[in-house]
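New to this. Explain these tokens.
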Amino acid sequence: MTCRFFVDDIPIRRYPRKSDDTFPLRPMYVYGSIWDASSWATENGKYKANYGYQPFVGRYSNFKLKGCVADLGQSCRPPSGSPSTDGGLSRQQVAAMQWVQRNYKVYDYCSDPKRDHSQTPEC
């Protein structure tokens, strides 16, 4: 079982279930937020926040959310962006996800040496 996040049918993140602690077998929810300009969110101040552009607003259009009941396994259908019948990613999707992560991912808590990873089993 894996949690996948798509934007415009392009996978951007993938979280495989490594243990019962990785992600829960109970209802979950999704929310979006705008991060502050803390040092961890700006690569130790490399990216400065320009507060002249405030208020900062996040907007979503055509937002679709698809989930599955955890214990039904095989009866869950993959998101529309996945051509695979088992819900996995094609080689093209994996390559697209890696490109997005190389070019747009600013922060990954699993790679942050300042974090205590004993509380994040997915890392």
